[in-house]
Amino acid sequence: MTGTSAPILTLDKVSKTFGNGPNAVRAARAISFSLHAGRALAVVGESGSGKTTCARIAMREYEPSEGRLLYKGKPVDNAGAKEIADYRRSVQMIFQDPFASLNPAHTIAYHLKRPLMLHRPELKGAAITEEIKALLKQVKLDPDIVASRYPHELSGGQRQRVNIARALAAKPEVIVADEPTSMLDVSVRLGVLNLLSEMKREMNLGLLYITHDIATARYVAEDIAVMYAGQIVEWGNTGKVIDNPAHPYTKLLLSAVPDPDIRFDDPNAQVSATEADETRRRSAATQETIREVEPDHFVRAA
Amino acid sequence: MTAPLLSVKNLTIDYIGETDDFRAVDNVSFDVAPGEVFGLAGESGCGKSTIAFAISRLHKPPALIRKESAILLDGRNVLDLDQHGLADFRWREVAMVFQSAMNSLNPVLRIEQQFYDVLKTHKGMSRAAARDRTAEMLKLVDISPDRMRDYPHQFSGGMRQRIVIAICLALDPRLIVMDEPTTALDVVVQREILQRINELRRKLGFAVLFITHDLGLMVQFCDRIGIMLGGKLVEQGTADAIYRTPEHDYTKKLWASFPSLHGGVLR
Fold it and tell me: Rounded to an integer, what distance in angstroms lies between the CA atom of residue B237 and that of residue A298?
């Protein structure tokens, strides 16, 4: 996860433990990654692997139990009110559920007006209306049709575009997108991913893309981190990790991705349940040793 | 092709509204052969789940199946069955696995009891006989029979889904309708379960109607596939034909909307 520019946001050996004593769950263990302007990092893993915990730590929704969160090289845990406000503006989130993340009682224009008033106080009166129009155009929605509508009048894909516009309203530097397309229909997923990528390029945003779908991760992200049981088990350049996986869990994950070229009846294509269990058991153990597979591609020793 | 096990003919289903009716399924016809896996693909709202419900006669008002429709299982029209006939037909002939099937287990009953309910109701089995059958079915889905005294929460999501499938198979149905059976599970577990179902249908000979929006997965698993759009079956063919030589524009568009592990990237 090397970038040419200085990182905007860094998680430095961050751990998060829920609960106490023998029942404690270590949802994130020594997680380190950085987000850079104009680059996307995909965090991939199954449900319960800790990927959303990482997103929430990046959003400052959870305090890390150990480790530090750095914003432009400075730790944010002892930041002052002004710095925190700046951080909140700078790091915006897009949620998984496009139906629950908009207020059903307010128009689309209202959803975009609030962040503009809060984060860009220099905008007044007509300038706000103009900016709302510009934001909707940016996410390829027609402001004349959409601005006065309520969320229930829009499709899931359109709502997710409104969510993207709302995040952009704050002029962020980082967008954290937690499974932004998993609740959308297949036919509109790609449109939303394309839009996110376009915004990333045009506005030089750092994108943290959380997903369980490794194929879409490859599609949008330059860098990838594969998580299992709270650890990043393999990371680096997306193409290198996917084409030359080194960790047994990454291999297992890749072998199970639906691939129309392989039929279930093909004896070479079988994923053995007992081997999969063994891989999971080995991958869940804490793995300290890190090995460089090739430049920009790292793996933990299982 | 041998005589079809399931034959859906001119199926038309409307949702009756106060002013307008909404046509959810529009004159759909397809056959499923014994032992075959037939896939129905399409996005949400295309009518694929409505078809699944109609086949088990689980549709409820305001859904209305229009007169000219027929759903034939071994030549017998399912739509003509009375309550008594339905009770015999469901589970014994056609079993269903739903999207969130792992949540359809009763949380306060042991697994053994949930098998017994089904086996007693439909076959009048005794406790001891039901226990033997339960052990046999659990082994079939790679779950140790000594866990039949456990409660659902003691199993993982994938295991619970396998238990539901085992209960479905307990009466040797000839057709299993699976509506997005693995959508809530991660890909590794999804692969394990579907691979197992594939082996079992080769061994036991049941047919599967498999419903999903994931075309790649569908091609891996199904023998033939039907593509639905706005209530109509716009294309059907062998899995290979749907993958390699799709004819309908919508099928082509569906394929284009899946990023693959080997295809182009954006960045």
Answer: 44
Per-residue pLDDT tens digits for B172-225: 999 999 998 887 778 888 888 899 899 999 999 999 999 998 899 999 999 999
pTM of the complete model: 0.87
Angle at which helices A156-169 and A126-138 cross, to 10°: 130
Task: Give the C-alpha separation, A35 to A71, whole Å.
Answer: 10
- Whether residue A222 lies within 8 A of chain B, CB to CB, comes out as yes
Question: Phi-psi bin for A64: left (phi > 0), alpha (psi -120 to 50), beta?
Answer: beta
Bridge-based pairing state of the strands A66-71 and A74-75: antiparallel
Is the CB of residue B79 less than 8 Å from the CB of residue B209? Answer: no
**B63 vs chain A: nearest CA distance in angstroms?**
23
Residue A215 and residue B261: Cβ atoms within 8 Å? yes
Q: Do B191 and A256 touch (CB under 8 A)?
A: yes
Interface contact flag, B188 A264, Cβ < 8 Å: no
Q: How many CB pairs under 8 A join A and B?
A: 97
Q: pLDDT tens across A9-54, in order?
A: 999 999 999 988 888 888 999 999 999 999 999 999 988 899 999 9
